[in-house]
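Per your request, structure below.
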């Protein structure tokens, strides 16, 4: 098997691990820990996984109670971001989905732009007056160099076919010293290590890369970013990641709880009741575990704030 050098550290030494899908394996760099899905889905296969089912019908991705919780968390994130930037900043969110975060930031007085691979999601985001949404590749969107104060990549970098090229382009469109905020699943988290191939955040149909802290930081440095802050906890991602991974390990249908919450399936009521009952019993232990792993620096996500550095001449 011929392998390309690692995108972060250029190493040619890799480990191969099986997954729950027999035709797919993970190739992990021995040096920095970044992994990638092999074989990589082609573009046609990828686009099938970004359908209305992925974004939710009628602009609602989850059950109403979960949608309300997501809205509250998104609003809280927008307020934190607002405190990190100057008033009336120019903001770009790559992979903006339905535009929920940009809508909140626009209401706080910022000039908000978004890019999205799905025309369906982009149409929904455009319903917010004032948002400019691009569906062309970022390199073809006509964005001026050094024209943004902040770029956001929230659980998007792992979906990109060439993350190193995207980061270099982001550095180019950010003003010198501009802020990059990103979050990705942490492949070296304790929940990932304990769950193995049953880890919820592997998402092999859509995630092309799986990042370690060392690998992500090397990739950012290689792309002329300086990491300023980094944490490994998210209330939105970590407790549920631990919970769903635990349910997967117990032998339930893969991602059953998540698919129920997204209204993708509607099994008999007694199957739903059993799944929600067991999930309720495991919710507190899963949340406690996710907090402890984060305190140990091994939480389920890598939440990173980095500053752009001048490009090398």
């Amino acid at each position: 098997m011929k392998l390309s050098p690692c995108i972060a550290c250029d190493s040619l030494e890799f480990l191969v691990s099986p997954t729950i899908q027999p035709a797919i394996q993970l190739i992990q760099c021995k040096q920095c820990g970044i992994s990638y899905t092999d074989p990589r889905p082609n573009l046609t296969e990828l686009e099938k996984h970004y359908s209305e089912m992925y974004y939710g019908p009628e602009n609602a991705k989850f059950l109403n109670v979960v949608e309300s919780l997501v809205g509250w968390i998104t609003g809280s994130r927008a307020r934190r971001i607002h405190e990190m930037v100057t008033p009336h900043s120019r903001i770009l969110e790559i992979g903006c989905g339905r535009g929920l975060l940009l809508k909140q930031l626009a209401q706080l007085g910022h000039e908000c732009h978004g890019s999205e691979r799905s025309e369906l999601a982009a149409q929904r985001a455009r319903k917010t007056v004032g948002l400019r949404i691009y569906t062309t590749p970022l390199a073809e969107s006509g964005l001026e160099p050094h024209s943004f104060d902040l770029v956001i990549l929230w659980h998007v970098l792992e979906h990109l076919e060439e993350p190193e090229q995207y980061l270099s382009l982001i550095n180019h469109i950010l003003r010198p010293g501009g802020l990059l905020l990103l979050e990705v699943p942490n492949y070296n988290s304790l929940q990932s290590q304990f769950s193995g191939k049953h880890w919820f955040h592997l998402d092999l149909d859509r995630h092309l890369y799986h990042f370690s802290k060392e690998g992500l930081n090397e990739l950012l440095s290689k792309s002329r970013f300086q990491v300023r802050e980094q944490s490994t906890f998210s209330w939105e991602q970590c407790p549920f990641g631990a919970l769903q991974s635990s349910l997967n390990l117990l032998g339930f249908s893969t991602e059953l709880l998540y698919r129920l919450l997204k209204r993708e399936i509607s099994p008999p009521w007694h199957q739903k009741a059993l799944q929600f009952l067991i999930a309720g019993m495991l919710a507190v232990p899963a949340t406690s575990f996710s907090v402890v792993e984060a305190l140990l620096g091994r939480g389920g996500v890598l939440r990173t704030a980095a500053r752009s550095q001048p490009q090398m001449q």
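Residues 155 and 184 are 5 Å apart (CA to CA).

Regards,
D.
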